[in-house]
Amino acid sequence: MREHTITGGRGLRLHVQEAGNPDGRPLLFIHGWSQCRLAWLQQFNSDQADDFGLVAVDMRGRGLSEKPHDAYGDSKLWADDVEAVITELGLERPIISGWSYGGMLICDYLRVHGEAGVGGLHFVSAITKLGTDAASAGIGPEFLNNAVASFSTDAEEYVRAIEAYMAQVTVAELPPDVWYFILGYNAIVPPRVRQALFSREIENDNLLPTISVPTLITHGDSDEIVLPAAAEQHAALIPHAVHSVYPDIGHAPFAEAPDRFNRELREFASAA
């Protein structure tokens, strides 16, 4: 395992973890809203590492990356963060997997830097718009309530909100050690960061049809956070995309069904 500090947009320090085959096709994993690089452990600890270069970044405000007060509303900053990881680590046409809020960051990157530098895109339980009525229609109402509660600066209140949110992420109950591990890296995200991430207003319905690189859409049919209808819309807007639906799986198919997820990502990355 190799650890890096990358200089992202506006000079922000980003923490990046790298593993696997340095000569293999790079897979760049972008986590979700209140998460960090550790969400992808079941990919890093799999046989993916034998053939692919695996890279996971703590996006700004999360994990071990810097947590500024006012640097979350500008698409270019997000785009430049992703571009910095690609260029500073010399990733050649990586496959970018964006989970949940990570779908927004894929779109930010495409708007600013285009798709020439990527080999494929992987939308995992992803959102691509936020802050509008149309965007809210694709997000579970209970999750929205929990998200707002997590903006509180009262530690007990925001931890309760995060626990309620975590209970929605998977269909199956997580073992206690895994539950508290995930709770820990969610809880260290400052409430102001979670709120700032939700304060963006952006639409990408006009961007998605312009995507021409290979695209995979992965979504659980029991997702209560980003509703399956969001993936269906993405598939309609990106006609060449492969749409893979996971039965009886919630918001984190890479964690609940890692064998299938890793197999499908391997097949996709090998063909892209």
What can you tell me about this protein's structure?
The protein is α/β, with parallel strands linked by helices. The chain has one domain (2-271): Alpha/Beta hydrolase fold, catalytic domain (Rossmann fold, 3-Layer(aba) Sandwich), CATH 3.40.50. It has 12 helices and 8 strands. The chain has an 8-stranded mixed beta sheet with strand order 1-2-4-3-5-6-7-8, sandwiched between helices. Strand 7, helix 10 and strand 8 form a beta-alpha-beta unit. The radius of gyration is 17 Å and the shape is globular.
Furnish the topology, listing elements before pairings.
Blueprint (H helix, E strand, L loop, with lengths): L1 E6 L5 E8 L4 E6 L10 H4 L3 H4 E7 L16 H14 L6 E5 L2 H12 L6 E5 L8 H4 L4 H9 L5 H15 L6 H12 L3 H8 L16 E6 L7 H10 L4 E5 L6 H4 L1 H14 L1
Parallel strand pairs: 3-4, 3-5, 5-6, 6-7, 7-8
Antiparallel strand pairs: 1-2, 2-4
Please give a handful of descriptors for the protein shown.
eight-stranded mixed sheet; alpha/beta; Rossmann fold; 272 residues
Rg (CA only)? 17 Å
Kindly report the CATH topology. Answer: Rossmann fold
Our estimate of the beta-strand percent is: 15-25%
Largest sheet, spatial ordering of strands: 1-2-4-3-5-6-7-8
Q: Decide which structural class fits the backbone.
A: alpha/beta
* Count of discrete structural domains: 1
Number of strands: 8
With helices defined by DSSP (H or I, 4 residues minimum), what is the helix count?
Answer: 12
Per CATH, the architecture is 3-Layer(aba) Sandwich
